[in-house]
Design brief:
This protein is of the alpha+beta class. It contains three helices and seven strands; from the N terminus they run αββββαβαββ. Strand 1 and strand 2 form a beta hairpin. It comes from Aristophania vespae.
Length: 155
């Protein structure tokens, strides 16, 4: 497998989406020092949410994992745009924060977030290993089942 993020993306057959414009009064990425803080990304693929609803109700765990993966690919699209297309500047992923819209009795938040975490390591290798949180919430914007935010260290 390639040692660069771009090479891994190509080997995995992934087409990164275009970085989405913000839907409210915020910016998608803020750089402070050598950190990029990426606003929460929803599971959009080709302009549509992959699923709507809640885990433990009308969204399956497999759909939730796919949503977390899509959120992470949208994060990569945002950082690529912020870095003028140069993913080689990523030194490591510091943290991922995952929000899982779910029923009160749903307990597999970490399993859902593995969709994003596994993709992080698949694309960035060792630099993709990160701290994280996976939190259940009653609802998310646009009725999305998953939202993921991130902090990256860059050169």
């Amino acid at each position: 497998m390639s040692s660069s993020a771009e090479g891994r993306i190509a080997e995995l057959g992934i087409s990164l989406p275009q970085a989405a414009a913000p839907v409210a009064n915020y910016v998608p990425v803020v750089q402070t020092g050598n950190l990029l803080v990426v606003s929460g990304q929803l599971p959009f693929e080709k302009g549509e949410l992959l699923a709507k609803g809640k885990l433990g109700e009308n969204v399956s765990e497999e759909e939730g994992i796919a949503c977390a993966r899509a959120c992470f690919l949208n994060i990569v699209a945002q950082i690529k745009a912020a870095l003028n297309g140069d993913l080689s500047r990523v030194k490591r992923i510091v943290r991922l924060g995952g929000f899982i819209a779910c029923s009160a009795d749903f307990v597999n938040h970490a399993h859902i977030m593995n969709g994003a975490s596994n993709m992080a390591v698949d694309i960035f290798g060792e630099a993709g290993k990160h701290a994280r949180a996976a939190v259940g919430v009653p609802s998310l914007p646009l009725n999305a089942p998953v939202e993921v935010e991130a902090i990256f260290e860059v050169s």
